[in-house]
């Protein structure tokens, strides 16, 4: 099936073609015909499945182009409001449909001017309700869409949503999208929708088949080393790294910049202007790495993200799907990479079960493997490089001082510096370590007691010597009976690069305190 099968208006189809959309996603295949038929609808689907196009394309196709606001889209966050507004404008520009983005933190007068010229409003609940209550806007939209309804529930917007609908016309088409369907959302749907059709993605549709999902098991103290090594090996064109906390975002962005990467953090404590500048820089490829919390990156729509990295696993499967949905968009292939510790392994398996997909366990490449790949990439670039006139002039000048072989060796030495690989030769767990972790988890064990050797001291998030401290059955590991042997490996992150970290707590603890606080000193020689 292609988008041509929906028989959209010619100008809308041109916008779809220019956006590079080929085949509709599962939610688009099911939702678009229902919306075009004029029916109310409840769609259960995660971010990254193509929801914006699923409601935006058919609604824009049915809009009449009359003066005034015809469509209202309500979303939970400023970032998502900007993303949805941008996408709807891109779809509707050939039909002269303007969008107005409405959220807190901007002047009322500017937003009101934009609304006066707009056919579509994309708004967060708080500011939109302020405008309606104050009588600053009077609108009569034919289409009202609630996007990420469960997220708005979690953020405490449910009462605002209910009040907003008291200002909406009774004759309208209403669409509701939500990743999950708690009772409060079901009751809301019964109140605001009329005889809705339901579209629910099955587990096999939850994650995009175009996204390759892998994980690497390391000790807590090795997260930074593993991340750098994986970047060296995979060489992403544009990537997002997800962290659990704002503190971790700040620490990791500082660290990556110090390592020479074009990276920047994105989280809720930043001023709105800073966040907008950061997103624009990332979209225009002035940034190659965006480091973000889940909330900050929700709804981020950038079609050329090649890789998503989970620096820590999220606390739930929904967040995992939201994260990896940032790559593999618009029919392109993507890669989702998760860095996990043995203590997070049960959380990993819980995610696999909930999304109905098995992730592929891999070992972190050693220095030789990375060098081989880097040299091969460099040879490919050299073979494809056109010979420029200014290069010929330079070589002729150099031949006055050196023979041609010396010139070649010197130039090769300059470009070959890019194949240098930092860090320890081996990082993280071996294949046999990972296999044993899987077997333990399947038996319901999942502790990491008593294992020595392997990379980084076996299954322990603890001392570098691999001592297990007796391996208590309550999951405690390390030299001390409470599992403490240095920095925390319970998923709390942030702080120093010497292995100490702070931040979130994982759900994957088993038995008693399985914090497994590791000592490892990251001020090791990086080779």
Commentary on this structure:
With 527 residues, this protein is α/β, with parallel strands linked by helices. The protein has 20 helices and 14 strands. The strands form 2 sheets. The chain has a 7-stranded parallel beta sheet, sandwiched between helices. Strand 3, helix 5 and strand 4 form a beta-alpha-beta unit. The protein is globular, with a radius of gyration of 26 Å. 46% of the residues are buried. Mean pLDDT is 80; it is low at 445-527.
Topology:
Layout: H1 10-18, H2 26-36, E1 41-44, H3 51-62, E2 71-74, H4 78-92, E3 99-102, H5 108-116, E4 120-123, H6 125-133, E5 143-146, H7 149-154, H8 158-164, E6 173-178, H9 183-192, E7 197-200, H10 203-206, E8 211-217, H11 223-234, E9 239-242, H12 246-258, E10 263-266, H13 272-283, E11 289-292, H14 294-297, E12 307-310, H15 317-324, E13 334-340, H16 345-355, E14 360-362, H17 367-384, H18 389-398, H19 404-416, H20 431-442
Parallel strand pairs: 1-6, 1-7, 2-4, 2-5, 3-4, 5-6, 8-13, 8-14, 9-11, 9-12, 10-11, 12-13
Helix pairs in contact: 2-3, 3-4, 6-8
Q: Enumerate how many helices there are, as a single number.
A: 20
Number of strands: 14
Beta-strand residue percentage: 5-15%
Please identify the oligomeric state: single chain
What is the structural class? alpha/beta
Low-confidence stretches: 445-527
């Amino acid at each position: 099936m292609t988008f041509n099968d929906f028989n959209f208006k010619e100008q809308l189809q041109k916008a779809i073609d220019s956006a590079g959309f080929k085949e509709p996603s599962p939610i688009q295949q099911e939702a678009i015909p229902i919306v075009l038929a004029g029916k109310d609808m409840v769609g259960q689907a995660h971010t990254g499945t193509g929801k914006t196009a699923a409601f935006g394309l058919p609604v824009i196709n049915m809009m009449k182009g009359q003066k005034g606001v015809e469509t209202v889209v309500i979303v939970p966050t400023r970032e998502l409001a900007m993303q949805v507004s941008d996408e709807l404008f891109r779809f509707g520009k050939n039909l002269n449909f303007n969008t107005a983005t409405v959220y807190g933190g901007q002047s009322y007068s500017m937003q009101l001017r934009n609304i006066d010229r707009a056919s579509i409003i994309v708004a967060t609940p708080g500011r939109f309700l302020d405008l309606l209550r104050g009588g600053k806007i009077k609108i009569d939209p034919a289409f009202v869409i609630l996007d990420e309804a469960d997220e708005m529930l979690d953020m405490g917007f449910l009462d605002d949503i209910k009040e907003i609908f008291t200002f909406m016309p009774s004759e309208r088409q209403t669409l509701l999208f939500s990743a999950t369907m708690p009772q409060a959302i079901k009751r809301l749907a019964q109140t605001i929708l009329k005889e809705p059709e339901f579209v629910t993605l099955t587990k096999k549709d939850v994650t995009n088949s175009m996204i390759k999902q892998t994980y690497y098991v390391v000790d807590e103290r090795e997260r930074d080393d593993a991340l750098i090594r994986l970047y060296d090996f995979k060489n992403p064109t544009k990537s997002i790294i997800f962290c659990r906390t704002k503190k971790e975002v700040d620490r990791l962005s500082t660290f990556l910049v110090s390592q020479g990467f074009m990276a920047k953090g994105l989280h809720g404590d930043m001023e709105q202007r800073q966040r907008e500048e950061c997103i624009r820089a990332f979209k225009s490829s002035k940034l190659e790495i965006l480091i973000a919390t889940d909330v900050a990156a929700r709804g981020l729509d950038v079609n050329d993200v090649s890789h998503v990295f989970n620096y820590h696993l999220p606390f739930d499967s929904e967040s995992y799907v939201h994260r990896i949905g940032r790559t593999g968009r618009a029919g392109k292939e993507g890669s989702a990479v998760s860095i996990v510790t043995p203590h997070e392994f049960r959380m990993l398996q819980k995610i696999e079960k909930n999304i109905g997909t098995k992730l592929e366990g891999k070992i972190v490449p050693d220095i030789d493997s990375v060098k081989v790949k880097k040299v091969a990439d460099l040879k490919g670039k050299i073979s494809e490089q056109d010979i420029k006139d200014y290069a010929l002039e330079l070589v002729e000048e150099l031949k006055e001082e050196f023979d041609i072989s010396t010139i070649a060796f010197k130039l090769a030495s300059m470009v070959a510096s890019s194949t240098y690989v930092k860090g320890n030769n081996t990082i993280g767990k071996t294949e046999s370590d990972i296999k044993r972790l899987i077997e333990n988890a399947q038996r319901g064990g999942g502790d990491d007691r008593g294992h020595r050797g392997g990379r980084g001291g076996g299954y322990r998030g603890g001392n570098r010597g691999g001592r297990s401290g007796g391996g208590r059955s309550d999951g405690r590991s390390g030299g001390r009976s409470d599992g403490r042997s240095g920095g925390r490996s319970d998923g709390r992150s942030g702080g120093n690069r010497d292995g100490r970290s702070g931040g979130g707590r994982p759900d994957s603890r088993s038995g008693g305190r399985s914090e497994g606080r590791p000592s490892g000193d990251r001020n090791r020689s990086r080779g």
